[in-house]
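Backbone-to-sequence.
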């Protein structure tokens, strides 16, 4: 493809993303699937340029608005990106928008004025507001500042970078060293991750679909942060475990492998289609201790029937996904799923219902890929108020039990952030249900209280 034809493909792709109510990565996959004639080099270039433009959405929009151009159309964003970030000069840009075969149409008068106004500038500008510079949408500014405090800018800047490619080694089939060796045979360079005992970080972005180590289930693609959430579940071989919001099974796989194929993991979700896809991954990984169980809702009668039966229950709740903005740069600008006003009550309901599954002495692990306090510490605090039989198990204690090296965090909860840990933003809280004896003792203690004293205490 000529450079101009590639640019037209980027414009087409950005237009499709704007017009399709689906995440950009899904739109991109479909775009290339329907155009198999686009070679791999061109595909990479088109995808990278499109992502680069999505990552600069607010800054390009700020410049476009500043020049008085009516709307940040895909063509306007491509023009602004070429001039401000790629530093092409106006003459070269004009040549590309030639109107020739496969090239973008000629510039309109407004577009010509835009090019003239932006020529010789760069993307950064001293008058650009901080929220634009770090690409923070209005709705998220308050909650992000509240959650991150004086780390707002540094974390938001890190969220603008492309996420690294992390793999989790399937301990049923390999270890970190043997997986590195297997990958090196196909010229894929990987090194061990900083925190996860199963993690590898790959250099560059090689295609893994055809690689033996991936096809044979030695490694799975999984962000290091997501691996650490699975580690926080701390399942033991022989345990009974529920992954209540299993989705495509990323954490289920890590949990089941940690259990060495012994015991049982029930993967639940309200989306049966996702669970079906997950089942294929379970098979490839050689894990036979997983069963999939679709739910009609978090209140599915199955939950009541299995009250207090499980050692570990993971609730990897649906959330704002603010921790994954590195890999989904469009997510901050397009509301494709429910908003916070729907998510917060849903998370509380899921947590409340899933808690019924936990046996005395067992653990409920609440996790999100959100950076926001209300979805994380806020939910845990509200849950503990209404569930006095659960207490927080500090994450350092879990790490010590798992012999997983030094804890990646201080404090009670696993709170991972891109700038501190170079992972996606994740949160996990481990909540332990008191053993039956402890509850019985407390109840017995209550009976010993003099009723008159109790009445006085209540009046007070
Ligand atoms: C953050 S995703 C889970 C990701 C998955 N655990 C993984 O590691 O790949 C949240 C999941 O919760 C599911 N979900 C949404 N509402 C639910 C509900 N009421 N009960 C159970 N699962 C629900 C969604 O379908 C989605 O798959």
């Amino acid at each position: 493809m000529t450079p101009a034809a590639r640019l037209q493909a980027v414009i087409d792709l950005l237009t499709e993303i704007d017009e399709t109510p689906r995440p950009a990565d899904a739109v991109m996959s479909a775009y290339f699937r329907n155009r198999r004639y686009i070679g791999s080099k061109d595909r990479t270039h088109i995808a990278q340029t499109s992502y680069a433009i999505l990552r600069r959405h607010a800054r390009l929009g700020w410049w476009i608005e500043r020049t008085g151009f009516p709307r940040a159309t895909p063509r306007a964003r491509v023009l602004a990106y070429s001039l401000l970030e790629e530093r092409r000069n106006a003459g070269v840009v004009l040549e590309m928008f030639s109107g020739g075969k496969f090239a973008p149409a000629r510039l309109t008068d407004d577009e010509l004025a835009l090019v003239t106004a932006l020529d010789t500038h760069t993307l950064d500008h001293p008058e650009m507001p901080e929220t634009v510079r770090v690409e923070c949408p209005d709705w998220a500014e308050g909650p992000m500042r509240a959650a991150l405090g004086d780390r707002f800018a540094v974390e938001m800047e890190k969220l603008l970078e492309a996420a690294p490619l992390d793999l989790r080694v399937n301990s049923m089939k390999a270890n970190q060293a043997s997986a590195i060796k297997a990958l090196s045979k196909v010229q894929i360079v990987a090194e061990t991750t900083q925190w996860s005992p199963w993690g590898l970080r790959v250099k560059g972005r090689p295609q893994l679909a055809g690689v033996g180590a991936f096809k044979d289930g030695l490694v799975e693609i999984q962000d290091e942060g997501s691996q650490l959430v699975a580690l926080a579940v701390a399942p033991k071989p022989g345990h009974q475990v529920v992954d209540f919001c299993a989705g495509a099974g990323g954490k289920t796989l890590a949990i089941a492998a940690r259990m060495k194929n012994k015991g049982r993991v029930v993967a639940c979700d309200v989306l049966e289609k996702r669970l079906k896809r997950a089942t294929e991954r379970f098979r490839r990984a050689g894990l036979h201790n997983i069963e999939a169980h679709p739910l009609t809702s978090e209140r599915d009668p199955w939950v009541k029937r299995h009250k207090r039966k499980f050692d570990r229950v993971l609730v990897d709740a649906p959330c704002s996904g603010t921790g994954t903005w590195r890999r989904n740069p469009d997510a901050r600008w397009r509301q494709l799923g429910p908003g916070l006003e729907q998510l917060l009550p849903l998370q509380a309901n899921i947590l409340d219902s899933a808690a019924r599954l936990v046996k005395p002495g067992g653990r409920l692990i609440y996790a999100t890929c959100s950076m926001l306090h209300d979805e994380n510490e806020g939910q845990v605090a509200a849950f503990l108020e209404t569930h006095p039989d659960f207490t927080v198990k500090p994450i350092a204690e879990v790490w010590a039990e798992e012999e997983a090296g030094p804890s990646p965090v201080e404090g009670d909860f696993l709170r991972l952030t891109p700038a501190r840990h170079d992972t996606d933003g994740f949160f996990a809280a481990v909540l332990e249900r008191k053993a039956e004896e402890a509850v019985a003792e407390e109840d017995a203690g209550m009976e010993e209280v003099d009723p008159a004293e109790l009445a006085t205490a209540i009046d007070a």
